[in-house]
Amino acid sequence: MMKSGFEKSLLACVLLAALLATGCGKAKEKEAEAEEGEAPVPVEVDAAAKGPIDLLVEGDAVLYPINQSNLTSKIAAPVAKVLVNRGDHVKAGQLIAQLEGRDLAAAAQESKSQYDQAQSAYQTASRATIVEDRTKAQADLQSAEQALEAAKKVYESRVELQKQGALAQKLVDDAKVAMVQAQSQYDTARQHLQTVQQVTGAEQVKAAEAQVNAAKAHYESANVQVSYTEIRTPISGVVSERQVYPGELAQPGQPLVTILDISRIVARTNVPIKQASFVKVGKQATITTPDGTVTGTVTVVSPAANATTTTVEVWVQADNPGEALKPGATARVSIRADLIRDAVLVPASAILNSDEGGEKVMIFGADSKARERKVTVGIREGNRVQILAGLAEGEKVITSGGLGLENKAKVTLKAEEDDDDDDDADDDAKPSPTGAPKADAKKDSKDKK
């Protein structure tokens, strides 16, 4: 009996559905088998804990000496001798170089003679001349006073005689003229004495004193010129550069020798403005170089930021025992800017880069599965990292074996796996009831099959 087209189509649909059901069932079975057969990844974990952490401000730095002096010449003169070489240690005030200065010394001696002459003239003006002028003026006044008294007596005598008719009027008039002249001379002498006492003496002394001062200034200037021939260091330190040699002509402002004081060293670093707000003068810091690490203190925090780099310059000063640290070298500066208490901390090895950007950790769940968790990272100090958000105290994070783990991947603790391996090894080493090791017993069983 022939089947209709409808029956054939219906039969085909039933067969197709049966095949699909069979395929899906087999896929699910394979997926379950794969999941059951997936080996857990061995990992190490650590619990997030609260504790204190230092806020460290770090940056690359360049080392500078605590003090530096470039010795220069103030005069143009030939170099007579240089008493130091590069690498020599010197003390403050030590003679470093000598310039030729015999002509300056002769000029200073001439100025000394002029100064001595001015002092002598001053002594004469203040002690001898003024006294003589005053004595002469007093004598002139006394003589004029006596002449005036005599003229008055002659005049008065003649007036009496003229009244008695014994003397002509002309003689009385002559006596009166002589008395007036004597009075005028007396007034002049008295005025002269006052001038000598009040004006002439002070002016002469002042003029003589001015000459002394001028001569003294000239003499001192000449001595200063002579002193410029001796080049002395104002600081203690070590000679880093020597630019001249005997016979060369030193010019004003020309560097002759450079002295560096490296008993202490200064590391200058630039830190971001945000971090610089935590840095204060007096904070402890470390300076790390290939030659070692020294402890120092922040001495300068620039009040202004660099507009180009948006950073703030910070100076860290430290002792330099043995002068091991050299100016010009690079270093790493770490400043303990602040202490944060009760921070959530995890090992740095637990922090991973997230595929979506930012950072993450892998949480070890109670079901032995790893779960991805995005976190916000704060301060890093050595092997410890502060977690600002995304993780609570006590949660377990994977510290080893988490790299490349998929979310919800099966994991096992390394310590437990090692213990299981040890147990299996011990079981294999135990003899079977027949007296043979287990491995051999299994082999025999296979052979029998």
Write down the CATH class of the largest domain.
Answer: Mainly Alpha
Radius of gyration from the alpha-carbon trace, in angstroms? 55 Å
Q: Categorize the overall geometry.
A: elongated
Helix segment count? 6
SSE run: HEEEEEHHEEEEHEEEEEEEEEEHH
Oligomer status: single chain
How big a fraction of the residues is strand?
25-35%
In total, the number of strands is 19
Counted up, domains total: 3
Structural class label: alpha+beta
Q: Main sheet, how many strands, which sense, barrel? A: 6 strands, antiparallel, barrel
Strand order of the largest sheet: 2-9-12-11-10-13
- What is the name of the CATH architecture of the largest domain? Orthogonal Bundle
Q: Tell me, rounded to a whole number, the average pLDDT.
A: 81
Provide a concise account of the structure shown.
The chain has 449 residues and is α+β, with helices and mostly antiparallel strands. 41% of the residues lie in helices and 34% in strands. Strand 15 and strand 16 form a beta hairpin.
